[in-house]
């Protein structure tokens, strides 16, 4: 196993391979156990990588993908400010009223809204905004929120699979390859929109549709909701929608203009912050901007920082290259077999471990296969297989994706806990169906 010079000065002469592998596996185990916050674990692991001499600080910083971090932070700020206008609550109430507050209709509509917002924004922020309204609607209808919350978890991950910005694994893959926003629209969006979403919605309706009943009186209560009252700031709404439109348009044209998605997202966040604050006093501006940044998912962002360093250490130590050789040997170096192995392997692995660290490990692994597979262009089917497998695999269990854990937290605080095995019983089959559809798609489109 060849070792990068950056990983040759480990304390006490220890093997960089063993140290980097041990720290990574220990970090992974602690993240899965959920005994310690994952950002603490990842940052501590990254610090030990540097302190023990596996990487220098300069080399470690070089392994952090600031494009991924910038894109996530920019979109978090834009979406959080937009959410203050009440637009997401407006859409949720409007959707429920469009189906006359029939429980099955509400289930389908909220699932669709979740999928669409997850594709255009990101799935973690989407569920943060949609779930509280869902709990309010189900309380008024006097139906169990469980089917609605499970459906929203599933559809958040399905919708997030469609675009570059919808799910963190896609952001990471798009930044590393690199792949543009338009590339995801061309390769993952069609199968999600035309096949996976409709089939998943049909199965959701089949599983829970007959069990959902609400009285005419309870439905009438929902119909009395005035969705316009949900809009708390019309001025902010107009500004937010205008900036969101500019950001999405920016993602479309970024690649031809030689710009990175992070630049577009940060520029959009800065513009919306300006529009929201220029007319305020200095003290109000400070308070408002502090609130906007405080609402960002800093736990996720710092988790990424630590994770990037840990994976970079594996790469520098030669572990990633060794794993790639083993995978190539197992698949005989056949591109089709490798793509399908990555699709299913990513899906199953992402169901049981958070798909973010899994994808962080897989990206350099796939990259290192380029010489054996015929160059970087030949790897494209592998990237799409990884994106589909990791994003859809997140639906397999409650710990498979960040959005799942966010919804579970809301449910527990509302006194409607989502249990691991109960969720897996409902969602794992839905995940397998979506990956099977992706299997057919990958074979037909790329081979």
Detail the topology: elements first, then pairings.
Elements lengths: L15 H18 L4 H14 L5 H6 L3 H18 L3 H12 L4 H18 L2 H19 L4 H16 L6 H9 L4 H7 L1 H20 L7 H8 L10 H21 L6 H17 L4 H13 L3 H20 L1 H13 L3 H18 L2 H13 L2 H4 L6 H14 L8 H12 L6 H27 L1
Detailed description of the structure:
The structure is a single chain. The model has no long low-confidence stretch (mean pLDDT 89). This protein is 75% helix and 0% strand. It is globular, with a radius of gyration of 22 Å. The protein has 23 helices and no strands. With 447 residues, the chain is an all-alpha fold. The longest helix is centred in the C-terminal third of the chain and has 27 residues, at 420-446. α7 packs antiparallel against α8 (146-161). The protein has one domain.
Short summary:
The protein has 447 residues and is mainly alpha-helical. 75% of the residues lie in helices and 0% in strands. The protein is built from 23 helices and no strands.
Index terms:
447 residues, mainly alpha, 0% strand, globular
